């Protein structure tokens, strides 16, 4: 365990201090052009819940850094280029917001417009114009003319992981998602078929169903995106609340998607009676420093074991109620200062079998 703590301290320092160099193949095209990062914000305000908020001043600091060091691209471009193998600009980042709050227009939009940054807002159409803190459709149409895109966050932002043993659960959930998509299309002409799961919660059945129905899903677990990613549950880096620190966010924005080829456990939803987790992850090691891979849970390093190209971990204590995740990172061989990133979310109901907000 002592070795794990030393390893954690060592890699955390490396993550904070790591710079970025860029290498290319002989044809001049960088391997990293097939990777992109999506940032997640909610509120841009000092008067909203701290856990999901960033001040306008801090948000402006984030955007100034992006302008200098990254290529901010539309979410649609990032997703489609990765899917069809078209190279992305260097260090591509897409910006997203969840929930459609008024303060996005009031506080974030002027800053984003200053830098001419495209961004996407995931909205709950049944709430639009019906609650004072939400955007209305006229504002959405005006923002759309200025390069903002809007996508699906389900109808009213409720937990989706109800009792999925009910025979009609998945069908009902998909009707909710399809209804929201049609409403967004009718009111704003957007039909991206991008879904951000409320609270980032999903299970294997749901992520498979949305892909089958032509959607791309987005969670709230961390990581970069590449062709290896699960397009039913793409990661996004939260960038507000405790994650707003630009020093640590810089490393995340420079990350690469870990090339996972197989996982022993794919379903992130757990029951109250099944809260102990172990997982084995098979990866392509061509560009990873295998010996320097490290995994973390609740901010603490956890032990890993290797068997050829597969690493395994166990979370020793039962998972807590609500949302948690295991993050694993390993430095790239070819891209000095860049880290491959893997994040596995876990979702557990509370003692009453409800899903905590």
From TrEMBL:
Which positions fall inside the NodB homology domain? 91-312
- Keyword Signal appears in the UniProt entry: yes
Location(s) in or outside the cell: Secreted
Query: Which range is the signal sequence, renumbered to this chain?
Result: none
Question: Out of the domains of life, which is the source?
Answer: Bacteria
Q: Which GO terms describe its molecular function?
A: hydrolase activity, acting on carbon-nitrogen (but not peptide) bonds
Q: Which UniProt keywords apply?
A: Signal
Keyword Signal present in the record's keywords: the answer is yes
- Could you tell me which InterPro entries the record lists for this protein? Glyco_hydro/deAcase_b/a-brl (IPR011330), NODB_dom (IPR002509), Polysacch_Deacetylase (IPR051398)
Record GO cellular component, one term: extracellular region
Q: Mind listing the GO biological process terms from this record? A: carbohydrate metabolic process
* Annotated protein name in UniProt: Polysaccharide deacetylase
Q: Could you tell me which species this protein originates from?
A: Aliiglaciecola lipolytica E3
